């Protein structure tokens, strides 16, 4: 989405449309929808296709900073309910036309001085739904998108015959963060009107309280919680708690429709003449900043004069007219080729877009890629069928051009560290990511890579993420809860014995603290973040001191494991005894304490805490599974694993292994030990060249880091998607990887590159 401008200097919101959104955009164009900006123009015959909407100064809910405090939301409760009712009213109107919005999340709902707006038309779809029940069960019937044969995947562009009457097959890429995703969507089914209702219930809870009903995490984990756990709902007045719980039902058919939800949230109906409630000051301030940002771009454009992109007399070129293709959005969607010299302005190779042709990606943060980052990207140039090269061949940051199959996506941004002291942290949100450089902790804008804030790191232990774009860290003073947006401390709980934060799940954190005794023993403590009080503490067994501990939190059990210090990682000949203990989550009572001898040196184990818990470890050339309750061995894997292996990785109900040489990446069934698939590496790896594995936040892609490159493998097919390295950076240690919503961060100590995750 972009802010664009036509010949008469009128502004519009320009949405670039995938083929699956063509029919929905046509349906919106046929008549006004309350809460959706009027359609000014629509073009599905261009590449990329686009729709222009009337522009109104607006900020998304994710742009509005939350007030300090663990229980405060984005808006007061009464305004949050009113907002949800107005969004439900708009959804009901869309659903009545057979349109699912598919973007009910903080990034997809915009606040204005009047009613909220839904304008992410690129996310809208028209699933096959009954006119009588537009909000119930469309995902249980096959729509035209699903009946068609195989077609291009997400981000691969429209087929030549695609159009309003020929939509593309369903894309499994969801446009909402995992925490707002209905369980059936997380399982890979298309978005639907019932999924919109589920997402709206999460949005209401998040906006009013800052909390999420099932915490945060990858889609498979959240889908499991939504299907098997009760949502964690705070005390809500009246029928509000009941209607939110009903909208969060695991089965789509059990949820109310958007119209029913609207009637419950606003019993008196939507009054068009009602004077809107005064907006909080920070929302007004954000609207003012957004409006001023557009005005500043206009001023800068006027100062630059008309020679850069006009015809010498200050007039805009013909293609700047929003009603005459090619629209300027097509220029926004095609970043310039990386390199010191921009491509010449020819019909086949458009010139780099200027501010006159593209004002900004102010709505969704893609302007950094659209306006160009020439000279900063060292990702391999890609060759298109027409012989041209550049990020546009890979889809770039805008995600509008087809990516060459087998080639990596173009980088969104790159950050260089001349001191070579950068370390990625597995902490991030849809908007921000964290990393350390030397002794300092930095917050970066995930969309641009720009540094937003800086703090003292506070120790060697990394911070731990908690819901609500926040993180916990152990400081010299005690436990500190900080905002990921600006790094500010929301509260500080003084604790002189605090050693580190081990893990967090929902509103509970688990801490390692000293017991204050002369012998220097350590305790495991559970801490309630909402009420800022300790729930319980229990002594750790001997040997579980202030070493490198891995902590896994399950529904009933907290598992603590002693890991190998980093300096002896990948000792070819080393074996060790793995010490691991389990504690009851509710009381802290130690359930068991076991040791497993002859385990491979280095990180060689991983825990699946669901369903009572299983431990997977590498020993004797094979992977083994043990029941954590009884200690009995469940199976021994078929696949052989070398002693110099990558750390095993468990994600989405599958165990992944990798070892040195040209040995494969192996996917293992965690219930039987049976090999599901293997993917052989294309490089011959020595024992010190293997890095770690991670999965995208959506759970659809597995990434393996080595000394020279990153391999992306599709889940669950096992098909290699692409492999690539990072040019211009010396390779001394394997790549660092961090998967945050929508983005894969790849780093050396001297450089960080952000890639689209899917």
TrEMBL record:
Residues 1-269 form the Protein kinase domain. PROSITE patterns: PROTEIN_KINASE_DOM. It holds the Pfam family PQQ_2. Residues 335-353 have a biased composition (Pro residues). Residues 127-173, 303-356, 384-410 are annotated as: Disordered. Gene3D superfamilies: Transferase(Phosphotransferase) domain 1, YVTN repeat-like/Quinoprotein amine dehydrogenase. Residues 133-144, 312-326 have a biased composition (Basic and acidic residues). PANTHER family: CELL SURFACE PROTEIN, OUTER MEMBRANE PROTEIN ASSEMBLY FACTOR BAMB. This is PQQ-binding-like beta-propeller repeat protein. It comes from Streptomyces flavotricini. The lineage of its organism: Bacteria, Bacillati, Actinomycetota, Actinomycetes, Kitasatosporales.
């Amino acid at each position: 989405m972009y802010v664009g401008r036509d010949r008469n200097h009128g502004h519009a919101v320009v949405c670039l449309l995938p083929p699956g959104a063509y029919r929905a955009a046509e349906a919106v164009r046929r008549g006004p929808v309350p809460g959706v900006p009027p359609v000014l123009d629509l073009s599905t015959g261009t590449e990329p296709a686009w729709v222009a909407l009337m522009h109104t100064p607006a900020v998304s809910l994710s742009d509005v900073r939350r007030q300090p405090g663990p229980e405060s939301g984005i808006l007061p409760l009464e305004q949050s309910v009113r907002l949800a009712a107005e969004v439900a009213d708009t959804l009901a109107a869309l659903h009545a036309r057979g349109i699912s919005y598919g973007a009910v999340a903080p990034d997809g709902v915009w606040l204005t001085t009047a009613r909220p707006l839904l304008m992410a038309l690129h996310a809208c779809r028209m699933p096959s739904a009954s006119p009588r029940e537009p909000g119930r069960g469309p995902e249980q019937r096959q729509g035209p998108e699903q009946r068609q044969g195989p077609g291009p995947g997400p981000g691969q562009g429209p087929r030549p015959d695609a159009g309003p009457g020929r939509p593309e097959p369903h894309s499994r890429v969801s446009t909402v963060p995992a925490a707002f995703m209905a369980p059936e969507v997380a399982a890979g089914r298309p978005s639907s009107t019932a999924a919109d209702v589920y997402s709206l219930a999460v949005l209401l809870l998040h906006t009013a309280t800052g909390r999420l009903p099932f915490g945060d995490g990858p889609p498979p984990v959240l889908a499991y919680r939504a299907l098997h756990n009760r949502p964690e709902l705070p005390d809500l007045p009246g029928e509000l708690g009941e209607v939110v719980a009903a909208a969060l039902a695991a089965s789509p058919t059990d949820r109310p429709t958007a119209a029913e939800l609207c009637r419950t949230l606003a019993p008196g109906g939507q009054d068009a003449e009602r004077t809107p409630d005064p907006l909080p000051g920070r929302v007004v301030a954000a609207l003012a900043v957004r409006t001023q940002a557009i005005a500043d771009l206009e001023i800068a454009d006027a100062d630059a004069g008309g020679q850069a992109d006009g015809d010498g007399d200050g007039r805009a070129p013909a293609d700047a007219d929003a009603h005459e293709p090619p629209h300027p959005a097509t220029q926004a969607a095609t970043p310039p080729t990386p390199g010191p010299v921009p491509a010449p302005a020819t019909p086949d190779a458009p010139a780099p877009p200027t501010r006159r042709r593209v004002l900004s990606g102010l709505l969704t943060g893609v302007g950094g890629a659209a306006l160009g980052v020439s000279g900063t990207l060292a990702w391999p140039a890609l060759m298109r069928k027409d012989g041209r090269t550049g990020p546009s061949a890979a889809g770039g940051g805008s995600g509008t051009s087809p990516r060459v199959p087998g080639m990596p996506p173009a980088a969104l941004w790159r950050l260089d560290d001349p001191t070579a002291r950068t370390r990625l942290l597995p902490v991030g949100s849809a908007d921000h990511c964290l990393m350390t450089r030397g002794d300092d902790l930095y917050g970066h804008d995930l969309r641009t890579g720009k540094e937003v804030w800086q703090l003292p790191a506070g120790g060697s232990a990394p911070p731990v993420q908690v819901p609500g774009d926040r993180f916990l860290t152990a400081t010299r003073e005690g436990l500190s809860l900080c905002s990921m947006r600006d790094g500010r401390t929301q509260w500080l709980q003084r604790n002189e014995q605090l050693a580190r934060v081990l893990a967090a799940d929902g509103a509970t954190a688990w801490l390692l603290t000293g017991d204050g005794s002369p012998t220097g023993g350590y305790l495991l403590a559970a801490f309630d973040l909402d009420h800022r009080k300790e729930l319980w503490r229990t002594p750790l067994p001997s040997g579980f001191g202030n070493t490198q501990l891995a902590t896994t939190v399950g529904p009933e059990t907290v598992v603590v494991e002693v890991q190998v210090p980093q300096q002896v990682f990948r000792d070819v000949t080393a074996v060790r005894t793995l010490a691991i203990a389990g504690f009851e989550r509710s009381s802290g009572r130690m359930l068991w304490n076991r040791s497993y001898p002859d385990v491979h040196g280095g990180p060689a184990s991983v825990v699946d805490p669901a369903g009572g818990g299983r431990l997977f470890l590498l020993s004797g050339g094979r992977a083994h599974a043990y029941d954590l309750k009884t200690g009995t061995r469940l199976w021994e894997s078929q696949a052989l694993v070398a002693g110099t292996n990558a750390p095993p990785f468990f994600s989405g109900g599958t165990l992944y292994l990798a070892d040195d040489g040209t040995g494969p990446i192996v996917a293992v069934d965690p219930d039987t030990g049976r090999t599901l698939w293997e993917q052989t590496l294309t490089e011959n790896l020595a024992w010190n060249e293997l890095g770690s594995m991670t999965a995208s936040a959506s759970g659809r892609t597995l990434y393996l880091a080595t000394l020279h490159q990153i391999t992306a493998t599709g889940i669950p097919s096992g098909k290699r998607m692409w492999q690539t390295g990072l040019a211009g950076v010396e390779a001394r240690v394997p790549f660092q990887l961090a998967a945050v919503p929508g983005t894969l961060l790849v780093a050396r100590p001297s450089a960080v590159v952000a890639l689209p995750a899917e």
